[in-house]
Amino acid sequence: MKRNVSILLAALLVIVGAVVAGSGRVTSEVPAPPAIGATIDEFTLPDVDGQDRSLKSLKGKNGTVLIFISVQCPVSNAYNERMQKLAEDYQAKGVAVVGINANFTEDATAVKNHAAAKGLKFPILKDAGNKLADKLGATRTPETYFLDANNKLVYHGRIDNSQDPAAIESNDLRQAIDSTLGGKPVEKTEAKAFGCSIKRA
Amino acid sequence: MRLFRTLLTVGLIVLLSSFAVPAQRKGSTAKRSTAVKTKVAPLKTDDLKALLAKPKDKPLLINFWATWCDPCRDEFPDLVKLDKDYRPHSINFVTVSLDEAKYINSSVPKFLTTMKATMPAYLLDANDPEPAINAVDQRWQGDLPATFLFNTQGELIYKHFGRVDIAELRGQLNKLVKK
């Protein structure tokens, strides 16, 4: 009898745990993103091998693109090739691309396997506690932040206007990087698109 | 002998059920194919702005979703139930799909039909989604699902990003209507 009660209690705990874990925080509670022009503080997060990596060690000489990405989100996956091409195109220009996975539903192994399968060769960090996502006010995947050489935020938002590469009319992220590299002001500093919500812990 | 009889009975049941199952499936497929599909209308950004424009005769509840969005699909049965409970009580409830336009006559109505959703259903027809996102709420970054409630003055009085908290939403609706 005692054993049955223990089993029942354990099962109840598992169910309650699953409900709590599944609920997570909603983006209505997420702080607003930093203003354009704000300096992004130094941060350190583990990569997919558990190795701590700092912004300082990853940043590009002329700027850094942070992209919140996902393993399962179809919108994020629609951009895999474009994200990798971005990293390749701008590496020689001194701009680094860093991926960040802040979904509590996707662990480091899943992120590592997904990157290998999809050919994502840029470093990807695991933001398990959503510390960076909260600091940057990130809510969806894919969502990008372009920081200049001094870690000042110069662009926040989408990669471009369409998941469908044939329907791209506004290459917002690339335009922001090109303007910054050319010493010109960025015309469009923020741009939105639909995406999957970040599954917060 | 008793063992033989038991085996025979079990064998007969298995044999009969193997005929019965395909017949049942066949019936349900035939029923599905004749079911009326939920219609999905295209919604231009200007149409969305007009929908949000005041004054309104009833409060407006809008849910933005997509078939590729897991929490959107997960919350849909709750929304259908909510629609049945509140639309007769002076609430306008519409859904806006953010799927690609090519799915307007296929996967989007198919999902809504499966859900038995009867609220007016739209699909955003805009190559640049940003003006639509900003027309709804400047603070919204475009993460899905997203649910917004506007009062008759056109003021945004409730919003929820991520899977909807149905008890919380019902609480908000109860403040606006008398059931």
Word description of this protein:
The complex is a heterodimer of chains A (201) and B (179). With 201 residues, chain A is α/β, with parallel strands linked by helices. Helix content of chain A is 35%, strand content 20%. In chain A, helix 7 links the parallel strand 8 and strand 9. The longest helix of chain A is centred in the first third of the chain and has 22 residues. The radius of gyration of chain A is 19 Å and the shape is globular. About 8% of the residues of chain A have low confidence. Chain B has 179 residues and is α/β, with parallel strands linked by helices. In chain B, helix 3 links the parallel strand 2 and strand 3. In chain B, helix 2 packs parallel to helix 5. Classes of the chains: A alpha/beta (201), B alpha/beta (179). Strand 10 of chain A pairs parallel with strand 5 of chain B, so a sheet runs across the interface.
What's the layout of helices and strands?
The complex is a heterodimer of chains A (201) and B (179).
Chain A: H1 2-23, E1 44-46, E2 52-54, H2 55-58, E3 63-68, H3 74-78, H4 80-91, E4 95-101, H5 108-118, E5 124-126, H6 131-136, E6 140-141, E7 143-148, E8 153-157, H7 172-181, E9 190-191, E10 195-197
Parallel strand pairs in A: 3-4, 4-5, 8-9
Antiparallel strand pairs in A: 1-2, 3-7, 6-10, 7-8
Chain B: H1 2-34, E1 40-43, H2 45-52, E2 60-65, H3 70-86, E3 92-97, H4 107-115, E4 121-124, H5 130-136, E5 143-144, E6 146-150, E7 156-161, H6 166-176
